[in-house]
Amino acid sequence: MLEEQMQVMSLIRNTTKMIQKDMAKLLKAFNDQKREEKKDRGNDQRGKVAEQNKPPSAKRIRNILVEVEGEDHEYHVLKETLVKDTCTWVFLQPALRVPHISTSENNRQVSQNFCNAITTVIIQAVEQNASLCELINAEIMKDDFDMDSYVADSLIRQILVPAFGKTSKYKLFLLLDGLDELEDLNELLSFLKVIREEDPRINVVFISRPGVLSSVKESSPLLAVDVTRENQKEDLRAFIWSHINSLSTIRKFDRYVQQRIADKVEEVAPNFLYAAHMLTRFDNLGREGAVIRNLEKPLPSGLHGIYEGLLTDCYRRTELEHKPVVSKLLHWMAFAFRPLTLNEVVSLVRLWLNDADFELESVPEPFESFLQVGDPGSDAEERVKIQAQGGWGTAVSELEKTQTVVDREVIYNDGALPVKFKERSMRSFFIEEADAADIHANRIRPSEIHRQMFLDCTKLAYTTSHYPFPIASALSRYIVVHMIPHWSRIDFERHTVAEQIEAMEALASTLSNKTSFSRMMEWTGSSYSGTFTDEFFERISRWGQLLSVNKEGMDKDAVEWWRTVSENSRACLLSLIKAHLRQTYISLNVDTALASYRRARDAIKTVSLTLPFSQSKLIRAEQLGSCVLGIEGLFEDVKLESTGYRALASLMLHFKHLKPAETLCQNALGGLDGALETVRARELMARIHLEDDAQAAHRDILECFEKMNDESVPLNLRHAVCITKAGVEAKLGMNEAAAVSYAHARTRSVLGGGQQARLHRRSEELEPATATNLALLGSGETDFIAQTYLDSIQYLDNVNAAAPLRMDLSLFYQHVIGNIEAARLALDEVLDSGSTGYPYAITDSSPDYTVTRAVDNYSALLYGIFRSSHDPKQKTELLTTVEGLLNRPLALDVLPTSITYLTFRLIVLSRMYLKLGPVTKFQDTLQSVLTGCIDALSDTISWNDADNLACLSKALDIIGSSISNGQKLKKMARTMHSAVFCHLDPKVRLMDDENKDDPDEDGGDDGESQTDAHRRRGPH
């Protein structure tokens, strides 16, 4: 009995212990969850506060600059991860009016492009300081402001120098890291030169390897600080302990073990990154005993030792069949001339495995250790929201896609994100040639990498239909642009005969156009002269010397090609030139003919040699450059048939050479058989004759019109015939017949009658309709035109592009229908819309012009209501509305075209203040108008003189009307306004000066200074 009770008690005790352990785990999980939620709420709250603290007008400046994705991520990471009491040699500077601004190498879009780095600096500055933001806004709105947002020097001189000039109260402390990654170091040197010449209140600190530092020292005096291990010893110790206290496992270790770890890492770490890697490795071990045993072994020698271990581990964990793919992938990422996107990487991997369904998730090992997808801080949803707003590239056919039916999964499509190394040093680890004595090296020599990349490029140098799986279009462009640069970096002396033959056969196959490489050149519009340089021809001559050694194992066609090239290196492009000519001759429209012809002409100029004509004639390449007929009969094996004559005739018409075009087209008509080609040639002849012989064009198009109903003639060609027929008839004054032909064109389009009619009506809706509005008003069709506007706006709203049309609709409501409330509602919708700064889709209207029109017209509309109203409360509301126009969403997103165009709003405000008060606001507002106009008329800018003269005259008229004896001022206002119609001719001034020099002439009382004369200039 006692034994049984003891067993029960033991069982209860064990169960209780298990329950206690489970409860402890649950409590720990709950506490961890609470901490994470609190942390997330804190991060969200800080993010909201940071967003609210940004000046509203900062978005204007952001929208006129180049878009840099995730530009503020590095800055916030630096603020949040800075270890306390470290890096005092950088950050313990005199008090700064602007917080530290940084750019880092981790964002390759920023680090490789100095213009993007300066853009990031400007955005951070204006979003952190409201008064500085307003100062830069005012600078940008000046009429003499002229900036190219794609040029770093322009950004520096037009924004940074004025904002942080000698007399500025602001100071910029700029920290630049990763300058080794810059594509063009000259931009940095130019920036430092500007700093030295202008002497703004800008302090620049940059971190780089010694090689970059020596280049900068040659052009700019620098205070160099060697960041040695010794002077960073205290910082390294603090960094190590900060990581130990934050890593999830090590922070629970015994203090003795933590101290052992800290001492060992501090002893061997050459830099902070090495220390972070080693601490993470110890944290992953998870056990104190395992860590102690590892500390007793030799640690990796430097970062490359760590990366070598990561690479070995990566290959160890990779499946045997995927190891070559992982090796190729890592080396492609390191040696590619630009960052590759995820779509491009997937295309490459599928090519290597010849598997159309392969996904990168099947080889996670390189992404766990070395690679990452996307830049830090990029937000998929935010990015797609911006893209969904539409741009000037949006097609009319896309308007019916509403934002509500967008596939949510498209938002998370990461195919366009870049694939990059997690650390910059990882890339240099692969690029630097491995030590031959290092038996653990898993890297390949650079020459072999470029050879493999070149071979991959030749395999992809086909049109996209060659492969059973889609190839990313961006990768195809990379192939065309960078295939030859990869080949140029192959050192053939370091390769076996078999490897040499493989590279020689691939180059011969590509340049002899067996892979249709000519079509790829036409599709991308790539330049021969930029790719096939003198250095290339010299190198291919050296490769040609290998033919005598390697021809036994080489393909016969490749041997023949290399034999020709070894005799004349520039003959390597002859096959591509012939291919371009053949493609020109069979082109069905002038666009494809132009693409082929331009590449042929570019290649001919590049080879720079005399080319044989048929019948033993010779012509220089330079003579071919400006003449389309130079390609006729250029090669005996490139036959010019009837379709070729038609294609050449279309080119001649494009270049406005009508007589040669007529001759060539006549040659085409003489040898054509079949209705299809006859219709094509006869329609072209009608367009040629239309320029100077409309009757002949009419005969041609009638003959064409009779034959176009043949079943072999496609709908798009029938549509073109009808359009040409309408144009001929319109020129002959046959307007009714032209209208019928246009109706035929709408019903015979490729899209079909119904679709084409809708698109035709929609295109008409987007045209300026002032005259049409007046005509419709007289015929009682105002409801139709209003509904037409509304239908078009409904479509354009899907891509956030309806603001320009709403602007026109408001004018229609106001001036045609007389519905003031509807006009005001339309203007409210314009100003409440947003903008990214890009031109609106479909209409291609610029947002700055749209906001300028909206502010101007709304001010005029509200002042009209103000004058007719007798209600003081309504007048006050109208005044408040005009005061807040520049704080509406569109005005905060986009800068108005010019400060001159905002003067009318100030005039309206002054008139309202005159009626309602206070008088001080009336005086201040009108004084700002007078001062602004006089300053604008006194400067060296002429285009704004007419507008400022008109505004100045209005201001004088207001003053004259506000005082009892103001007739003189009102007369002066009329005189001032009449000066708008004056324009000073420089020749007239020269004649006046000559008359003054003549002693016989009476000089009279000039009474006008040069400045006065300058003020009377009209717009150019």
From TrEMBL:
Organism domain of life: Eukaryota
Keyword Nucleotide-binding among UniProt keywords: no
Key word Repeat present: yes
Annotated region (Disordered), positions in chain: 31-56, 990-1020
Biased composition (Acidic residues): 994-1009
Domain Nephrocystin 3-like N-terminal: 106-209
Assigned keywords, A-Z: Repeat
InterPro entries the UniProt entry points to: NPHP3-like_N
Pfam families tied to this protein: NPHP3_N
Ranges of compositional bias, category Basic and acidic residues: 31-51
PANTHER family reported for this sequence: AMELOGENIN, NACHT DOMAIN-CONTAINING PROTEIN
Protein's recorded name: Nephrocystin 3-like N-terminal domain-containing protein
